[in-house]
């Protein structure tokens, strides 16, 4: 079977999601551990600010067993209790395929139509290929998912307007400051999210943008592209002192800023807005208690993008039709892959029994009688084969319940004849 287990902004708040947010090294470690389990054949792990999901193929155990295995490995890695299970959704068969196609088409994103998820899925898929944890089925699944996402964007106006949480963050700044163009802005982090932030600030006409990053040359390059200035990361608090708007999006396991560290460096601006786009969070929640400071995290931006969703609902029905067709196509291909070898084994096994019995009976009958027996045996064999295949398709949900396919496959293997 193909399955997915995961959590997202729809099932868990940021303080839960950040516990299961995985960096590249952690994702690789988890994937390798899961892949080494004899029951899991392929695995891809996707971890973004809004979701952590494990996509897998498991034909040697039931769905309940597969989900339990994955949860155990995940909880062992992050050190969280089983109490967190309630935040995870589980999909299998067509529901799992549909979910991935919806994710890559941004129908599951906080910002409907955002494009960043495409690059995130490509990165997760490429990492899985590099680590050797994907095979024929998930390779085809992810390639078809990316094709579906492209088709949705080509045939709808889904990607127009707000296209990322970064955009929503800038819109929130525009709501709070009438003269946004003149505000002193500090951007912490020069990754993909940080670049989207500065790009949208630049479009708004902002002129006083400073960028800091652990890797200095990345900060310098990003700032230069948008007429900003770079700040060495060790001088971060100088930037905090000057800024009226602070947007942070760096990868970290613990907050890099908290109230105790920030307060001595505030310079008396009547209002300071801090936006934390990191998961795990970059800014400790206690900063919200500082007088004159407004703190927002990724979940707080949902109300900003609500209007964007309403405008784009008309496109969702079109996208759903495209996705349904592509899910059916992939499911048909997968069923063929699952059932064809077993069907051939059933045909071969039944025919072999027929031939063996005919051979044993031939010496006791005339040629005319043997020809009649041969014809009759063929008719009985064909009916038996058709009945067995029909039952197999019903029991295995047309090949989707691969654990049943495996049992039938074993029953008709040569060693069991």
UniProtKB/TrEMBL annotation:
The EC number(s) this enzyme carries: 1.2.1.70
Catalytic activity: (S)-4-amino-5-oxopentanoate + tRNA(Glu) + NADP(+) = L-glutamyl-tRNA(Glu) + NADPH + H(+)
Occurrences of domain Glutamyl-tRNA reductase N-terminal (ranges): 5-156
Binding site for NADP(+): 189-194
Protein name: Glutamyl-tRNA reductase
GO biological process, one term: protoporphyrinogen IX biosynthetic process from glutamate
GO molecular function, one term: NADP binding
Recorded name of the encoding gene: hemA
């Amino acid at each position: 079977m193909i399955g997915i287990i995961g959590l997202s902004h729809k099932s868990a708040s940021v303080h839960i999601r950040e516990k299961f947010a995985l960096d590249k090294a952690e994702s690789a470690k988890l994937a390798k551990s899961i892949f080494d389990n004899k029951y899991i054949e392929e695995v891809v792990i996707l971890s973004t600010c809004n979701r952590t999901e494990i996509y897998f193929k498991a034909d040697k155990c039931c769905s309940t067993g597969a989900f339990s295995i994955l949860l155990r490995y995940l909880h062992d890695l992050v050190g969280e209790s089983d109490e967190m299970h309630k935040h995870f959704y589980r999909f299998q068969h067509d529901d799992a395929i549909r979910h991935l196609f919806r994710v890559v088409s941004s129908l599951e994103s906080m910002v409907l139509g955002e494009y960043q998820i495409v690059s995130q899925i490509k990165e997760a898929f490429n990492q899985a290929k590099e680590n050797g944890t994907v095979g024929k089925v998930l390779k085809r699944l992810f390639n078809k998912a990316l094709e579906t996402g492209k088709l949705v964007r080509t045939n709808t106006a889904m990607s127009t307007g707000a296209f990322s949480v970064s955009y929503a963050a800038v819109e929130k700044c525009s709501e709070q400051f009438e003269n946004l163009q003149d505000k002193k802005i500090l951007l912490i982090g020069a990754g993909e999210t940080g670049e989207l932030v500065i790009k949208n600030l630049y479009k708004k006409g902002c002129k006083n943008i400073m960028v800091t990053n652990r890797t200095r040359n990345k900060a310098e390059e990003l700032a230069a592209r948008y007429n900003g200035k770079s700040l060495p990361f060790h001088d971060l608090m100088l930037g905090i002192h000057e800024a009226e708007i602070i947007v942070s999006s760096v990868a970290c396991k613990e907050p890099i800023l908290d109230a105790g560290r920030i307060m001595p460096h505030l310079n008396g601006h009547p209002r300071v807005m801090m936006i934390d786009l990191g998961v795990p969070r970059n800014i400790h929640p206690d900063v919200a208690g500082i007088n004159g400071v407004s703190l927002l995290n990724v979940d707080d931006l949902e109300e900003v993008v609500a209007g964007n969703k309403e405008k784009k609902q008309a496109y969702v029905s079109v996208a759903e039709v495209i996705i349904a067709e592509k899910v059916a196509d992939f499911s048909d291909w997968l069923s063929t892959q699952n059932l064809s070898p077993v069907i051939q084994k059933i045909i071969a096994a039944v025919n072999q029994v027929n031939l063996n019995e005919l051979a044993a009976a031939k010496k006791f009958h005339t040629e005319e009688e043997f020809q009649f027996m041969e014809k009759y045996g063929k008719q009985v064999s064909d009916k038996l084969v058709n009945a067995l295949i029909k039952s197999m398709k019903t029991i295995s949900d047309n090949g989707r319940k691969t654990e049943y396919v495996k049992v039938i496959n074993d029953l008709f293997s040569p060693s069991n004849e």
